[in-house]
Amino acid sequence: MLLELFEWLGKDLRAFNVFSYITLRAVMAAMTALVISFVIGPWMIRKLTSLKIGQSVRDDGPQSHLVKAGTPTMGGALILTAVAVTTILWADLSNRYVWACLVTTVGFGVIGWIDDYRKVVHKNSKGISAKTKFFWQTVIAATALSYLAFRANLPQQTDLIVPFFKTVAIPLGAFGFIVLGWFVVVGFSNAVNLTDGLDGLAIMPTVMVASALAIFAYVAGNKVFATYLGVPHIAGAGELAIFCGAIAGAGLAFLWFNAYPAEVFMGDVGALALGGALGLVAVICRQEIVLIIMGGVFVVETLSVMIQVASFKLTGKRVFRMAPLHHHYELKGWKENQVVVRFWIITMMLVLFGLSTLKLR
Amino acid sequence: MNMRKAHEVKVWATLTRGAVLSPQGGGDQNLHVRFWIITMMLVLFGLSTLKLR
Lengths: 361, 53
Prior knowledge:
The complex is a heterodimer. Chain A is mainly alpha-helical. Chain A has 14 helices and 2 strands. Chain A has a two-stranded antiparallel sheet. In chain A, helix 3 (76-90) runs parallel beside helix 10 (267-284) and helix 4 (96-122) packs antiparallel against helix 5. Chain A is globular. Chain B is an all-alpha fold. Chain B has 2 helices and no strands. Chain B starts with a helix and ends in a 5-residue tail after the last helix. In chain B, 11% of the residues are buried. Chains A and B meet through helix 2 and helix 9 of A and helix 1 and helix 2 of B.
């Protein structure tokens, strides 16, 4: 929205042309989302508290978590509001990738919102059934991916790019693109949701991965950089740097309130939406494998749950003291803070490794 | 208490407000993370000077 305004103002005053640069708008988006979240945050926490929208803690979780019961949840609505408003303000609204990401993120947020609402109203930590959640996630992801697949006019927009190999690109076709994209988008949405079990554990890796994806989006959208670095050029994908910047800014501001000891939790409304957003940006930029590397913490947390369930069903034995993985380390004696900050450090290393794939190919 | 000291106490109280009010306690950790966030915001602002000139 502001882009059109600045373009119009730029006709008379050239200084406004600086806002046509994606890099600057991405930074401005991050700052705007930060400010919006800081302004709305305290009000929203007070509102959630007064409405008694408090987290119900899983009764089979670690005992130390019982003190968290009653902490306001659904704080993800704050992140979504900031991301949506900021993206509409700073991004090019004629860009189809921006709308695909925005609609998918809000759609996943709505699923999460319904889930959280049921948890809060029925005072049951289970929420809506996994099947129902999964079905609606699939509907939203498949719709967005089909739209992208059938609007793609170049093979590189649907090929699977293998990091570290400059010339390896596996043609997927429209169907393969949708299937792989569904796996990444829905998988990441649930992975972030599973990781969101300790104060600040999910949001900081989300901020880091979103920041890195902003760089990937910018490179993919810039023909010169894309050619130089040997990554597929996706015309228009650069605008997603603004969307990612908004996620990073809103996420950082949310961390202010979510850091241990949390004043608010993001809930499914935030976790499902943010995971879906990261997944879809990576799919558009053709960086699915790099996302799996950078979001390794989310992937490992999900795998820990799958391994635990499979092992218990097959052998009757547990591999971990408790799943997801962060509870395992808590029960091993790590303090909540230690688990959180160490997982952040691991994510930072993985993000750096992921970024290195831009050059190492 | 002089003016400067009163101001410092006020700033400290504002920064630690969430931590003190939280039922979980643990104000130190909260403060660390909030200082990291401030640093990250300043870094972001610093980076924007690359373009804003």
